[in-house]
Amino acid sequence: MDAVRYAAPNQLDIVNVPIPEIQEDQVLIKVTCCGICGTDRHLAEGEFIGKFPLIPGHEIVGIISQIGSSVKGLIIGDRCVADNTILCDSCYYCRRGQYLLCSNFDSLGVTKAGGFAGFVAVHSKKVFKINNLTDEEATLVEPAACAIHGMDRLRPSVGVEAIIFGAGPTGIILAQLLKINGASKVVIVANKGVKTKIARDLEAGDEYIELDRENPHPQWAKLKDEYQGKFDIVIEATGSQAIATDSINFVRRGGSLLIYGVYSNADRVQWSPAKIFQDEITVIGSFAQTHCFPRAVAYLDSGKIKVKGMVTDIFFIKDFEKALEKLRSKTACKIALRP
């Protein structure tokens, strides 16, 4: 089968590799679609937690083509998505129920062979059937699972006012989750373009503030003048060091800041500890997800979280470099890769 493979950071090849052999508790998924996200850009550059050589792709959608001897509840031909996380269940954190902090955390497409290939082997307990989503729409299940974990970390009270910086796929999904789960107001701040248009089309937020990508200073000045210190929940979902630094100034006294974007390893922020102390601000990190896929499938497959139109571009494996170029151009909302 053809696959995208990094021999090392920035060393990309399209290679032909054997189809994986499955164990008795695994299924073989014939990949029909696999989403590309900002994490893949960081992986390509040797950041995040990648291990090389690597076949990336962690937003896996496909059809079950082979089943291990001990697998129950799944049949050949089932349309499905795969939870990419792999946990050891035996380290200090797993034994405390803090699975995302697993000392031996692995992930399909990040540390182990993933879905930018024709087939991928997945443990059956990590496979979930889908019914009403297209293959392209189903690439949003994994981002939705991560967004649900972010909500679990936030535990927002009914009636909160929230602002989200960034209108990427998870920003749009987080906005919808906040509205469904009791936020009285959700403001989305993002650069003018396809992402904010899709956010509006899906009615993800209650208010939208679009920034001029070339000269955002006038909009930022107005934003700071009108909204600093006005939100119970602030979500930084851009991965921008500058916006992460500024974001704390929008948190209301007693509020929470969720750091959700994926940043370069060298990025640093500077916050006033006195402000955090005096205003009793809670700063929360949210990394990936574990055990959130059932809820993500339920939200998306039921249509309660809307993802129609979020996949704006589709490429084939052989054109993966073009897909990365499109990702870097910031002119796509969600990109998907087909074998």
Percent helix range:
25-40%
* β-strand amount: 25-35%
Number of strands: 17
Order of helices and strands: EEEHEEEHEEEHHEHEHEHEHEHEHEHE
From the 3D structure, determine the CATH topology of the largest domain. Quinone Oxidoreductase, Chain A, domain 1
The Rg value, from CA coordinates, equals 20 Å
Average of pLDDT:
96
CATH architecture of the largest domain: Alpha-Beta Complex
What is the distance, rounded to the nearest whole angstrom, between the alpha carbons of the first and last residues? 9 Å
Structural class by sheet pairing and helices: alpha/beta
The shape is globular
Count of helical stretches: 11
Please identify which CATH superfamily of the largest domain we are dealing with.
Answer: Medium-chain alcohol dehydrogenases, catalytic domain
The total tally of domains equals 2
Protein traits:
about 350 residues; alpha/beta; Quinone Oxidoreductase, Chain A, domain 1; Rossmann fold; 6-stranded parallel β-sheet; 11 helices; about 25% helix
List the helices and strands and how they pair.
Elements (H helix, E strand, L loop, with lengths): L1 E7 L2 E6 L9 E11 L1 H7 L14 E9 L11 E4 L2 E2 L5 H4 L10 E2 L11 E5 L3 E3 L5 H4 L2 H14 L6 E5 L3 H12 L4 E7 L2 H8 L5 E5 L5 H11 L3 E6 L4 H7 L3 E9 L13 H6 L3 E4 L7 H9 L9 E6 L3 H10 L4 E5 L1
Parallel strand pairs: 10-11, 10-13, 11-12, 13-14, 14-15, 16-17
Antiparallel strand pairs: 1-2, 3-4, 3-8, 3-17, 4-5, 5-9, 6-7
